[in-house]
Design brief:
Blueprint: E1 4-10, H1 16-27, E2 30-34, E3 49-52, H2 55-61, E4 67-69, H3 76-79, H4 82-85, E5 89-93, H5 94-97, E6 104-107, E7 117-119, E8 136-140, E9 145-154, E10 157-166, E11 169-173, H6 179-196, E12 202-210, E13 213-220, H7 232-242, E14 243-245
Parallel strand pairs: 1-2, 1-3
Antiparallel strand pairs: 4-14, 5-8, 6-7, 6-8, 9-10, 9-12, 10-11, 12-13
Length: 265
């Protein structure tokens, strides 16, 4: 077992993935620290820190701890070829989405500012009194995913994966007998991303199968994504890269660095 001076910081409300990552960190000699509050722990200031938790926790502690948190570009999904998305997807604003006259799946590309779901029309979206019109959103043609998988990607290659849903309901299992098909489609997605829509070096990509065939669901920040049945030690590798000290940030990852707010206590 090797030791590492870095610390894996977990959000106060630790979830199942956090517990698994804490165990995986211990097996490799990496210290894990569960925050007692939504503030940067004083004892970790000046220490190389990696974080695992939701966007609100990351924003609360990220700047003070000197973190570089990687996340995919907001329009990543919209930039992929139709053959990989399996439906029309556009990156637009909430103001524009409010003009929709028919059903569409609408979601914020990163933070969960409102529910990601099928809206009957634009009038059902949050109004100007709740969210500004310039809020970025992704608008997708409505499709039904029969089965969905989460893939943890490091340096353009799949490191870990898990099934997480069947017909829209939570259904966690290893990749199992679908592994070869999932991996084949993932390779196509990652190859296309390198050309059409680059990803950070550490990221989560969700894919699934619809009635039309294989399609990309979305991409998310690894430091805020559930691992489900994916191998925790491999998930940990991706999480650590996605949420490490800014001083260790590779140049190619610069465009994917989350803008962190200055928190005043």
């Amino acid at each position: 077992m090797t030791t590492d001076a870095s610390v894996l910081l977990l959000a106060p409300r630790i979830n199942d993935t956090g517990l698994r990552l804490r165990t995986a960190a211990g097996l490799r000699g990496l210290r894990a620290f569960t925050a007692a509050s939504w503030r940067a722990p004083r004892e970790l200031l000046g220490t190389p820190v990696h974080v695992y938790g939701g966007p609100l926790f990351a924003d609360a502690v990220g700047r003070e701890l000197g973190l570089a948190l990687l996340e995919p570009a907001e329009d990543w999904l919209a930039r992929l070829p139709l053959a990989l998305t399996g439906r029309r997807v556009s990156a637009t604003t909430l103001a524009e989405a409010r003009t929709l006259r028919g059903p569409a799946f609408v979601k914020p590309p990163a933070d969960k500012l409102f529910a990601a779901r099928v809206y009957p029309d634009g009038g059902a979206l949050p109004g100007p009194d709740l969210l500004d019109g310039d809020t970025p959103v992704l608008v997708s043609e409505v499709v039904r995913f029969r089965v969905e998988y989460r893939l943890f990607v490091l340096d353009g290659a799949l490191r870990a994966g898990s099934r997480y849903a069947v017909d829209g309901d939570l259904s966690v299992a290893p990749l199992g007998r679908d592994a070869s098909e999932v991996l084949a489609f993932a390779r196509d997605v990652l190859a296309a991303s390198a050309t059409h829509a680059p990803l950070p070096s550490a990221v989560v990509v969700d894919v699934g199968r619809t009635d039309r065939g294989w399609a990309v669901v979305e991409a998310n920040a690894a430091w805020a994504s559930g691992g489900y049945a994916a191998e925790p030690v491999d998930v940990l590798d991706v999480v650590l890269r996605s949420s490490g000290p800014a001083s260790r940030l590779a140049g190619a990852d610069g465009p994917f660095r989350r803008e962190l707010p200055e928190v005043v206590h």
